Fold AA1-like domain-containing protein.
Amino acid sequence: MYLLQVVGILLGFAMASSALPKAPVTNVAQNTGLSDRVIFADFQISNMILLTSALPGNSTFNHTLSFKFTDPNSNGTNTTCGSSWITTTNGSNTAPMSYILCDPTADEGFFEWQFTTITSLTSFGLRFAHEFSDPVHYPPPFNMVVYFSDANVTLTCDDAAGTSCKLPSMNATINRISD
C-alpha cells in the first residue's frame, strides 16, 4: 500500500512538471511577441583599446584588449572586460574564441564576451552576453535572462605599427535572448 502511495505521488509530480512552461531560446527578430513586451536597448561598448607589444625575439607579440560593457536593459549596469593573448609571425594565434567572463565585481549578473572571427588585429567580430535577473519581464522561475549580441569591430590605430588601437564607442544590437 505504501509503495502505491509513493508511486502515485511521483507520477503526480511528473505530470505537474511536464505541464510547466519550458524556457525558450529566441531570436529577437522572430515574431514572438517579445518585442511587444520588452524594448531592447543596444549594449553599449566604450573605451575599447587594443595594446600590442613585441616579446623578446621579435617573432611573438602580446595583445591586450579591454573595454567597458554597459547594458541599459538592466538599469545601466556595467563592467570592465578584457583579455590578453599571443600571436606569432608564423600565424599562431591564441585569441579567446570561447567566452571570457568580465570583471566578476559587475553591478548585476554575468557579463561575457568572445571573438567570433578575426580578420586582422584591427578588424574582428565579437559576441557579447549579459545574464541577469529580470522578474518584471520574465516572471519566476524564468526570471534569469541572457541577452546576446554579435558585432563587427574596426579599430583605429594611433601609429603605423599598431601598438595602440582604439574604438571610442559602439552600440551592439541585441539579436538573441534566452530566459
